[in-house]
């Protein structure tokens, strides 16, 4: 056995390893030299779920994930930033960190995981020694500012923990977090001054267009508070903070760096109530000097609040002590508990990919509520949560497809109920009276299309999630579906489709609205609301109004009923007929009515052939080069973006599940790897990862609200779903190998399973699903009409 030691405070050119026989003595010596306490070695079971996670997957390429410290669904995401998020650079650095970079400008407390849009990065801290520089500087000119170079050889991260050496400052940085508090520990070089930059511009040079206002208040020589209000993705967003130091600072200087504003600096001792100071403006940056600590260490706690500085101070009580080892351990335990919902046996790389996918699926929706239950709603007012924990960061256009169905399966019922109550509370306080579209920090962004909070609620209700008012939820769903001013809905209700001459992205909006309507109908029918069910089952058929049987594509119609011409199924532009896609990607989007699709395409063989064309097409890379989000191409199939995610599973509906198995192998092999650029597109708050999690189990929820999971093929040797109801559902893949990619047969609880899908009830009842794998396709299994999944063709 070989044990690799944490590369913290070690020689940058060394990689230390020792054999197990000398572990005890060597580990003690190294840890004492490095200043790391024995309790912090984290020599936990190497087979634990958290130990299998590689938090750097997705931090390179277009994955847009971050490697820093957070808790499952936590309010704080404490992570390094490697680049300014100027509007011209926003896309590549949407998560603040990019693996390809070699310098860090600081550590901020809020980040998105996997989005295609930049924001957050609140309350940036950067420790340093020597000369005070108030600007971060440029990567190509490291010494021009306070940023520092770093090396991946001296960078370490795991769920709930991040560490790095700042090479230019010779400082070791460690980060961990509770739900609402980020904890920093800095080790400075011997006899070096301990200094700290606090930048409320949060690495944004263009503060004049991003920062509306900010302030910083020195309350004592160990406590600083403040706030930041921005006009970014969510206009008027406010975040408050309280920052506590483990030792008093000796001096400080605080500046407002706005253009045409005299730099108002404050220097001198910072002790005593008489010396309190507050500064306001759009570009606040401060420097604190803590002298030369005998133990070379400075620790900082930063609590954030949705409500006020006093709320942030109260949130500090979530982390009462300065025991970094204990907080790191609590964070690790929280992740192991969350990830233990699934037990995985697989080859090392696949196990890492699967557990990392589960890890990324538990980043959001994120908590956005103070410890006393107060939160900020979409009206930008403060509200009190009653009997639930308010969450925000709902990337619904992405996550309703697989992320939320995954969470209904593996997360506690109370957590899923909290998500739904949060959506309903947002609707209650929405100025428009509708459910969130794309919300973070309580505020609406109006990003993307559809009213996809609806399928999230309907899917949870259909699967028996309790703890929320179903009547109120259905009312909120109907209000959202009938809110005419949003997204051309008034035209959709009038014409039976969204006309392209009256509304952009008309084809995509029509088909996505139709699916959302179907989920309303499903929930209403189960609740005995026959009139609502009939109305929305009818609307669910509106997708047919934009399907052109002559070409076999979804196409946009004008208000006079004519299809837009000329027509090119490869065209994709922002503001065109399709949302982040083309007709090739969107013409499969009627997941609730694939029987209707089969009929319109001319039968099983024609439908199968058409999907084969999607995957097998020879597509010039220039065709989609102008669209950042259309990535991970296999022909016209774009795995890096959500509209394609269900397409490979459609073969099951056409009686050719062996082709689903073939395509899944093709997708997983080409789109996922256990390395920083191992995601082919934005992870989008866990949707890309949830797709891999489901697919690795062996099934996928093509139509949330149907309570059915379409069987693909497993990629893990053994999976145990430790269900919230206390039961276990075990999935075993016999003879699984690279060569054996096809399903020979399937057994459920000892009986042959001929159907090519599973029901939610079958899974939650517990039991065992056994796949027998082979090298050649079994073209008979799951191919009969009786074996196929549910599909709604017409409402009876």
Automatic annotation (TrEMBL):
- What region holds the Glycosyl hydrolase family domain? 312-774
Where the record annotates domain Glycosyl hydrolase family 92 N-terminal, the positions are 53-305
Q: Which keywords does the record carry?
A: Hydrolase
Q: Which GO terms describe its molecular function?
A: hydrolase activity
Q: What is this protein called?
A: GH92 family glycosyl hydrolase
Q: Which organism is it from?
A: Undibacterium danionis
């Amino acid at each position: 056995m070989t044990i690799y030691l944490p590369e913290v405070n070690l020689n940058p050119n060394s990689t230390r390893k020792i054999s197990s026989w000398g572990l005890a003595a060597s580990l003690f010596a190294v840890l004492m030299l490095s200043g790391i306490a024995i309790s912090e070695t984290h020599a936990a079971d190497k087979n634990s779920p958290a130990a299998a996670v590689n938090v750097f997957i997705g931090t390179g390429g277009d994955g847009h994930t971050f490697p820093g410290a957070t808790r499952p669904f936590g309010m704080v995401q404490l992570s390094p930033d490697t680049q300014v998020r100027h509007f011209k650079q926003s896309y590549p650095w949407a998560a603040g960190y990019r693996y390809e970079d070699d310098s860090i400008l600081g550590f901020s407390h809020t980040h998105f995981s996997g989005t295609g849009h930049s924001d957050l990065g609140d309350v940036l801290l950067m420790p340093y020694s020597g000369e005070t520089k108030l600007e971060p500087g440029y990567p190509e000119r490291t010494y021009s500012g306070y940023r520092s170079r770093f090396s991946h050889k001296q960078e370490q991260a795991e769920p709930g923990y991040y560490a790095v050496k700042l090479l230019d400052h010779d400082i070791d940085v460690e980060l961990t977090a509770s739900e609402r508090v980020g904890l920093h520990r800095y080790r400075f070089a011997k006899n070096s001054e301990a200094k700290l930059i606090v930048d409320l511009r949060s690495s944004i040079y263009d503060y004049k267009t991003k920062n509306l206002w900010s302030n910083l208040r020195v309350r004592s020589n160990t406590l600083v508070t403040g706030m930041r209000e921005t006009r970014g993705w969510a206009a008027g967003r406010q975040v408050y903070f309280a920052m506590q130091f483990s030792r008093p600072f000796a001096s400080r200087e605080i500046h407002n760096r706005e253009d045409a504003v005299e730099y108002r600096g404050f220097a001198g001792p910072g002790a005593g109530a008489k010396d309190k100071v507050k500064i306001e403006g759009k570009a606040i940056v401060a420097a604190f000097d803590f002298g030369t600590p005998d133990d070379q260490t400075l620790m900082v706690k930063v609590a954030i609040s949705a409500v006020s500085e006093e709320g942030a101070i109260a949130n500090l009580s979530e982390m009462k002590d300065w025991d970094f080892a204990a907080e790191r351990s609590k964070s690790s335990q929280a992740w192991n508990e969350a990830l233990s919902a699934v037990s995985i046996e697989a080859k090392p790389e696949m196990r890492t990919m699967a557990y990392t996918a589960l890890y990324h699926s538990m980043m959001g929706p994120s908590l956005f509520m103070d410890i006393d239950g107060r939160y900020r709603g979409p009206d930008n007012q403060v509200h009190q949560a009653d009997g639930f924990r308010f969450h925000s960061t709902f990337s619904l256009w992405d996550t309703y497809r697989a992320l939320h169905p995954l969470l209904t399966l593996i997360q506690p019922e109370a957590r899923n109920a909290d998500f739904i109550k949060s959506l309903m509370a947002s609707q209650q306080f929405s100025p428009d009276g509708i459910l969130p579209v794309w919300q973070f920090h309580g505020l609406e962004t109006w990003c993307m299309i559809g009213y996809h909070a609806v399928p999230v609620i309907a899917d949870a209700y259909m699967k028996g999630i309790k703890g929320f008012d179903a009547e109120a939820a259905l009312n909120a769903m109907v209000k959202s579906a009938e809110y005419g001013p949003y997204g051309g809905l008034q035209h959709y209700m009038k014409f039976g489709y969204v006309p392209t001459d009256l509304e952009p992205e008309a084809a995509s909006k029509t088909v996505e609205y139709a699916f959302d309507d179907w989920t309303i109908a499903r929930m209403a029918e189960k609740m005995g609301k026959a009139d609502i069910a009939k109305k929305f089952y009818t609307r669910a058929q509106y997708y047919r109004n934009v399907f052109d049987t002559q070409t076999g594509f979804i196409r946009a119609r004008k208000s006079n009923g004519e299809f837009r011409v000329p027509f090119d199924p490869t065209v994709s532009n922002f503001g065109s007929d399709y949302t982040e896609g083309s007709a090739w990607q969107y013409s499969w989007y009627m997941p609730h009515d694939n029987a209707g699709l089969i009929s319109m395409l001319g039968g099983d063989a024609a439908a199968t052939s058409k999907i084969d064309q999607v995957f097998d097409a020879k597509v010039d890379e220039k065709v989609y080069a102008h669209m950042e989000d259309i990535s991970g191409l296999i022909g016209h199939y774009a795995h890096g973006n959500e509209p394609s995610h269900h397409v490979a599973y459609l073969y099951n509906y056409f009686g050719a599940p062996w082709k689903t198995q073939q395509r899944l192998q093709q997708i997983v092999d080409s789109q996922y790897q256990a390395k920083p650029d191992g995601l082919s597109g934005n992870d989008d708050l866990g949707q890309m990862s949830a797709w891999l999690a489901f697919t690795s189990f062996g099934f996928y929820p093509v139509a949330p609200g149907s309570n059915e999971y379409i069987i693909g093929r497993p990629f893990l040797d053994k999976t145990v779903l430790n269900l919230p109801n206390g039961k276990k559902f075990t999935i075993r893949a016999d003879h699984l190998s690279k060569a054996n990619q096809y399903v020979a047969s399937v057994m459920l609880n000892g009986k042959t399973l001929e159907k090519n899908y599973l029901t939610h009830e079958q899974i939650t009842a517990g039991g065992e699903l056994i796949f027998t794998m082979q090298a050649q396709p079994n073209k008979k299994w799951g191919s009969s009409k009786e074996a196929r999944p549910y599909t709604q063709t017409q409402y009876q």
